[in-house]
Amino acid sequence: SSLAIGTTTGYRLFSLSSVEQLDQVHESNEIPDVYIVERLFSSSLVVVVSHAKPQQMNVYHFKKGTEICNYSYSSNILSIRLNRQRLIVCLEESIYIHNIKDMKLLKTILDTPPNTTGLCALSINHANSYLAYPGSATSGEIVLYDGNTLKTACTIPAHDGPLAALTFNSTGSKLASASEKGTVIRVFSIPGGQKLYEFRRGMKRYVNISSLVFSMDSQFLCASSNTETVHIFKLEHLTDSRPEEPPTWSGYMGKMFQAATNYLPAQVSGMMNQDRAFATVRLNISGQRNICALSTIQKLPRLLVTTSDGHLYIYNLDPQDGGECVLIKKHSLLGSGKTEENKENDLQPPLPQSYAATVARQSTVPSTSTMPGYSEDGGALRGEVIPEHEFATGPVCLDDENEFPPVSI
């Protein structure tokens, strides 16, 4: 529900509470050529890195218009991740872990394998604050690091080739990964590292997966790449979701086949359990970097795709039947462009009476229901405003009671 973009002139923050309306929360033109902008959920804490000073991290309280602090590092900052407990700064061959409450440096992980893209993931659940990063530049080994205890939890031999994408689910109990080949996506349990799911994106061509993201309820996993197709996988075991088979010959044979997979070698059994995409999206563009999110807007599941040319696309996702997702809105993130945008948004001819058609006609009034937030026990259980005492009285004191409205999903 919150979108941050870096531009040649600065950065912009948006709030998305309805399909029809994209609200600009803040715009800053103080620092040009921003290539990293990370906002702490819906708070006013924003971390910015500019091409003008690529080794410097600037932390702002954007509502007050003040800089909280800045830190400089030995080489260019490649990525930044943050939750309510930790702030992670990833360089090519080292990772810095800060305590977000007072910005103190807690740990430096030196001599990590060359990580030219700054690939790393941090659990947004601050109760565990797991960090994942590549353990090798030549194979797909993942290092799982506990950001709270500051100790390595385990290493996961996830893929044969080098890693290209990593992401945690909202509670930090699952980790998804893809290699540079981009043909297979795997999901592991955290912190044990056991393989739970294996999805095949396709075998015809290797792709560069640039965005990998779970839905907030962990039922779906979305993968986008440098191709025009976005894949959405459903995390379910067929044995759990399939209704009881009728007592027929085919039903009996199906059960026999399912039981037989338990006795096959793991490699063969794993191949048989691979699933194809549950839902797909055909983008109008190809070869352009994009970032995806699975969100619930106005009580309905949506796929959001933001492209590097400055557009946000919103699609309906049918959670029962999947299939091809329907484009329902296109927003411009650069400039107002409202006249052009309104013309462009007359996208849909009359649709058949399908799920997509039904949800497309839903009211555009933003939902007033409270969405789940994060509680101290780590679950996405209830709407939560972070109490003031959780933040130190030091430089990062966020003193507005509304700094942390319930985290929308």
Helix content: under 10%
Q: Characterize the overall form.
A: globular
Hey, roughly how much beta strand do the residues contain?
Answer: 35-45%
- Terminal CA distance reads 7 Å
Helix count from the secondary structure assignment? 5
Mean pLDDT over the residues: 79
CATH uppermost class of the domain at 1-110 and 378-387 and 398-408: Mainly Beta
Low-confidence stretches: 238-251, 265-273, 337-394, 404-409
What name goes with the CATH superfamily of the domain at 1-110 and 378-387 and 398-408?
A: YVTN repeat-like/Quinoprotein amine dehydrogenase
Derived structural class: mainly beta
Cα gyration radius (Å): 22 Å
The biggest beta sheet reads:
5 strands, mixed
| Main β-sheet, spatial strand arrangement | 20-21-22-23-27
Question: How is this structure best described in words?
Answer:
With 409 residues, this protein is mainly beta. The protein has a domain at 1-110 and 378-387 and 398-408: YVTN repeat-like/Quinoprotein amine dehydrogenase (Methylamine Dehydrogenase, Chain H, 7 Propeller), CATH 2.130.10. Helix content is 9%, strand content 40%. The protein contains five helices and 28 strands. The chain has helices at 238-241, 249-260, 266-272, 338-344, 355-360; strands at 2-6, 11-15, 23-28, 34-39, 45-50, 53-61, 66-72, 79-82, 86-90, 94-99, 105-110, 121-122, 130-134, 140-146, 151-159, 163-168, 174-179, 184-189, 195-200, 209-214, 220-225, 229-234, 279-282, 290-297, 300-307, 311-316, 323-324, 326-332. Strands 20-21-22-23-27 form a five-stranded mixed sheet, with no helix packed on it. The chain has a four-stranded antiparallel sheet with strand order 4-5-6-7, with no helix packed on it. A four-stranded antiparallel sheet has the order 8-9-10-11, with no helix packed on it. A hairpin with a 7-residue loop joins strand 2 and strand 3. Keywords: Autophagy, Lipid-binding, Membrane, Repeat, WD repeat. InterPro entries: PROPPIN, WD40/YVTN_repeat-like_dom_sf, WD40_repeat_dom_sf, WD40_rpt. GO terms for molecular function: phosphatidylinositol-3-phosphate binding. Residues 361-383 are annotated as: Disordered.
